[in-house]
Amino acid sequence: MTLRSAGRLRPRPSGALAAALHESASRHEHLCPRQVLGARIALLAGRELGLRLPRRDRRLIVIVETDGCFVDGLAIAAGCSVGGRTLRLEDYGKVAASFVDTETARAVRITPHPQAREVAIRFAPAAENRWQAQLIGYQHMPDDLLLSANPVRLVASLAELVGEARARARCDGCGEEVIDRREVVRGGQTLCRACAFGAYYLAASSFPAQGRRQPVVECVATRRRALLADRG
Ligand SMILES: [Zn+2]
Ligand SMILES: [Zn+2]
Questions:
Q1: Are 120 and 133 in contact (CB under 8 A)?
Q2: What distance in Å separates the CA atoms of residue 97 and residue 193, rounded to the nearest whole number?
């Protein structure tokens, strides 16, 4: 399909895309371009790997590179979830995802085409703004104008990626339990990643003062009382 003809052609979203968007929008309480992008990425991954989606088994593992709306569309179309241990987040702050077929070890990483935002406008000539153009355009653009798919190879083994179920260790640093073989052995010590590499949190003896803000309703009532007292 040429870009020139795109505005006129506008095929309807496929059944799989429409179903994924319907479910994603109802869970998400709105439909936005990022959800469409996520669903399209998942559906392309299914075709690239020759897998029917959404999966009801654990054959497909997805690593997403950001969180947010994009993941909702993707997770529903792919049938993957964090709870099902088939969806993992490596937060690179990128709208991108890799899909791994655990049976064949084939993997594909899919990103939006760098020009997708601009091209979307040509697929939604009646759109009122860029957001709406992306929302509509992303549903109708052909894969090669919307997305870019490349085969990849995982750096770690699948077993390492998924972790070893039922494995349990005790951290020599903090004493907390570590499951799925996520512990690190350093200088003869078994450590959790927080103790080995530094945690995202610091222990605090109490909540900081600014964290205990007065609830808004109470604030208004207090201010009104003060005002009335001032007026006498
Ligand atoms: Zn959204
Ligand atoms: Zn620890």
A1: yes
A2: 24
- Domain range for residue 107? 3-159
144 and 192 belong to one structural domain: no
Ligand 2 geometric centre to CA of 60 (Å): 31
Q: Which ligand is nearest to the CA of 25?
A: 1
Q: Which amino acid is at 45?
A: A
Number of domains in the chain: 2
The Å distance, Cα 94 to ligand 2 centre, comes to 29
CA of 22 to the centre of ligand 1 (A): 13
Question: What is the CATH classification number for the domain harbouring 46?
Answer: 3.30.1330.130
Q: Which CATH number do you get for residue 190?
A: 3.30.60
Q: Do 19 and 117 fall into the same domain?
A: yes
Give the Cβ contact number of residue 112 at 10 Å: 20
Per-residue pLDDT in tens (0 to 9) along the chain, 232 residues: 443 333 334 445 678 999 999 988 888 788 999 999 999 999 999 999 999 999 999 999 999 999 999 999 999 999 999 999 999 999 999 999 999 999 999 999 999 999 999 999 999 999 999 999 999 999 999 999 999 999 999 998 888 888 888 889 999 999 999 999 999 999 999 999 999 999 999 988 888 777 556 555 554 444 555 544 544 3
139 & 175 share domain = no
Tell me how many helices (H) and strands (E) the chain has. 10, 9
Ligand sitting nearest the alpha carbon of 68: 1
Tell me the ligand closest to 191's alpha carbon. Answer: 2
Contacting residues for 93 by C-beta, under 8 A, at least 6 apart = 65, 66
> Domain for residue 208, yes or no?
no
Tell whether pTM > 0.70. yes
